[in-house]
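[agent] plan:
  1. take the single chain provided in the ticket
  2. run structure prediction with default settings
  3. attach structure tokens to the ticket
  4. add a short note for the reviewer (M.T.)
[agent] executing step 1
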Amino acid sequence: MKSKIDSKILGGLVLAVGILLLTAGASFWSIRGLRVQTKQVEHTYQVMQEVVNVTAVLKDAQAGVRGYLLTGDTAYLQPYSMATGQLPASLRRLDELTADNSIQRQRLDSLRYLVEQEFRILRPLTQINSSVSRSAMQTLLDTDRQTLRQVRMLYSRIQTREMALLAQRSASQEIFEKATPIVVLVSAVLGVLIVVWLVIKIVQELADNRRLQDELATVNAEVSRRIAQIRQLAEQVVQGDYTVKISDSAADNLGGLATSLNRMTQTLDATFSALEKRNQELDQFAYVASHDLKAPLRGVTTIVKWIEEELAAELSPQLRTYMSQMKGRLHRLEDLINGLLAYARVGRTAQTATSVDVAQLLGEVAELVVPPDFTLRVGPDMPTLVTDRLGLQQVFTNLLSNAVKYHQRGGGQLEITARDAGQFYEFRVQDDGPGIASEYHQKIFLLFQTLRDRHTAESTGIGLSIVQKIINEHQGRIRVESSPGQGAGFIFTWPK
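[agent] step 2 finished; step 3 output follows
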């Protein structure tokens, strides 16, 4: 819409500028024509004035010479002397003024010839003491009269031509004089009309723009409200509430999205309810199965013990070996059942949040699982949390006992550090044991997975699974950083 408005305003400006340029060009043409015609009229008057000057000066020179001849007084020769200086200059000016008129140039050439001829006639007459005879003088005077008559005739032709030009140029000048004010006035009126039209269009476009902006603001507010409802639904779904719905039945994309989200939450609610029921059934099954298996297991263990006690003298070395292996298998089976029971109990008991000094908690755990030949260093930045003490204690207990159990040599070095990670604290349990190859970093957290021989009694493969389940129950994460021969570091997050 903004592009459309901009194009309309731009088109109006271009049109207005074009019309203004046309009117300005017309005004310029009219004023320029008036000025040219005025100069042409002035030019005609200048030509006529110069021709008049030439004729008058030549006539005065002739009259002065005749007066001198009659009186002998040299004062009468002053016009003649002045003519000798004025006429060449006047003729040069006429040359310049008639440069664009070939007919007048021809007449001017004839005039120049007559002027030169007149001076050739008058020059001998200015000298009374010359040897000019009276008959020769009379001939010169007659020739002088004829020359002057030709000059007058030539002057008349030049004047007639210039008067015709003057009439023509005056008519053109009059046309331009009348047209110029009209053109200027029309240009001014058009300019004003164009400006007024352009202002009206701009005002209309701005009003339309404001109206559209108001409509868009209303639409945006409504869309924002509906998006806020969708965001609120998403937040509630993230928090585990799958019963929420959006009351939005509009027949547009957001309305369709609201309907889809409502169906999604209904499906999630049904799915998670079913999943929760299945998990409860599985936990119950694991708990009951593990609990019920312990009774016959104890019976088998007791029978083996009785056999060893009552038939000790009759048992061969090979049979004693078999009996020892049987007790190991029974002991391992009991450990697996106990681990399975511990895994099933995770999340089944209510969690009581209490204030936990993590440094003190680690001291208590170390007394139980860290042998005297191991060194445990606890970082100085251990926090105090309000959390599930038993769960955090079990996590540290399993991680430290695993570090000791899998060390494979004498005393070792253990280190526990913590750092603030926003809404969580990040703990790191580091040992200097044999390390774990990268291909086992995910496998070790699976149930019943161990890197030791399955026949080793203390390796049930449940400890890290329990740790991961406890941490997941508290919305934390656990990972391992290790490589063979470099020790292992278990990093987990725990909510503040």
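[agent] step 4 note for reviewer: The chain is about 70% helix and 10% strand.
[agent] ticket updated
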